[in-house]
Amino acid sequence: MNKEHIDESSAKHFLVCFTLALYSTELAVGCGVGKEVGDYKNYGHFCGGDLFFDTLGAAAGTAVRLILIRLIYGRWQYNWY
Fold this sequence. Notes:
By secondary structure, the chain is mostly helical. It has helices at residues 3-21, 25-43, 48-73. Helix content is 79%, strand content 0%. α1 (3-21) packs antiparallel against α2, α1 packs parallel to α3 and α2 packs antiparallel against α3. The longest helix has 26 residues, at 48-73. The protein starts with a helix and ends in an 8-residue tail after the last helix. 19% of the residues are buried.
């Protein structure tokens, strides 16, 4: 695996999980893990680096979501009911 692939792949994994985590952390982590499991089953390789950037993106997206909720609603959690 070359450096350009790592940079491009890492950015894609981070951005996709970041975007998904703005809606749901579980969705972001589930999609990231599911993608790596699918890669392992279909192509025979599992990339821990991709999973790391999935997790990093999900954490960053969750942090942004919580900060926005705090700024908009004045509390750390939004109750949908």
